[in-house]
Amino acid sequence: MELRRWRRDRSRALVAVPFLLILVVTVVDILAPPEVHLGPFLVAAPAVTASFGGPWLTGLVGFVAIVAQAVVAVTRTSLTDLNHTLQISALILISAIVTLFALHRERHEQQMTRLRSVAQATQGVLLRPLPRQVGPLRIASVYLAAEAEAEIGGDLYAVARTADATRLVIGDVRGKGLEAISDAALVLGAFRAAAHRQAALPALVAHLEGAVSSDLNDPGVQEEESFVTAAVLDVPDTEHVLHLVSCGHPPPLLLRDGRAAPMEVTRPALPLGLTDIARPEFTVESFPFEADDVVLLYTDGVTEARDGSGTFYPLAERMAAWSGDGPEALLRYLSGDLLAYAGGFLGDDAAMVAVQRLPMAQAGPVATPAPAKRSRA
Description:
377 residues, alpha+beta, 7-stranded mixed sheet, 9 helices, 14 strands
């Protein structure tokens, strides 16, 4: 709400600038000596307006500037004076040009908004709500969309149950737009179809790899190189351990006793879809995952967010500074902190999933799914 209010106040202030400029130039031009002519400065008013306003506002500012120039001409000499006639003619021409420019920009922005709305609706269908609790795990998720001018990304996440464990996947498709969403849908579909029945984690990841690679090899698929970074996890119900296969994805962060440590694997696999480069080998690595531990899964849109000086967001440091309780509270804190750090604008979509292991006494059946929080930076 504060960000929207700030943007609204800024827009109102910007609208006042061209009118204030017209007023100042007109008054000074009328009071200036005969040999001084400030009329050409009025061109700046519609030109500046076209950079942020629509065609109607730009045309209005241009009309007011023309009227102001006519007032100056009548006050100082006459409306038919050659110098003022040329200034008025030039002002009419430039006002018309910048108004057309504003019209073109507005139509382009409307088209981008419609495309992004379609993409976000599609992605909303793909990223199904994650359950609040699955067995001994509490889960929360959040999706932060980049600014309206950016193309939507292919971030993905999902959870599935086996007989005695919970499986999660988080990934990021290379590229933007609807093609990235299509690839994300492919990975999610393959995960949801196979995660319940695949006995071993490497077999599940190999299934995902096969789905991505076969799609990329189909005739008619874009020739541009495409791949998916992913982290696939298996969390047994009765063992305090977490099994992980990383396919070129940023390492999860484990929060324990106020310290956030990356879960770095020693033998990461290549991103999904790169079987042409090397034969895939999916090695499972295990990490302790005790009661009350919290694991954060995220995409690179989080860690690649920058502040005004260009410094990347220090995710592990900010996560360790959190002193709340529960995965939902953690994601609320990180989302607000990330947006504040980046000045309210993210250059890439960002997704986060927080998973907390509960003490065995609190473990229970799957709860009602909670919709993932979605925000516009």
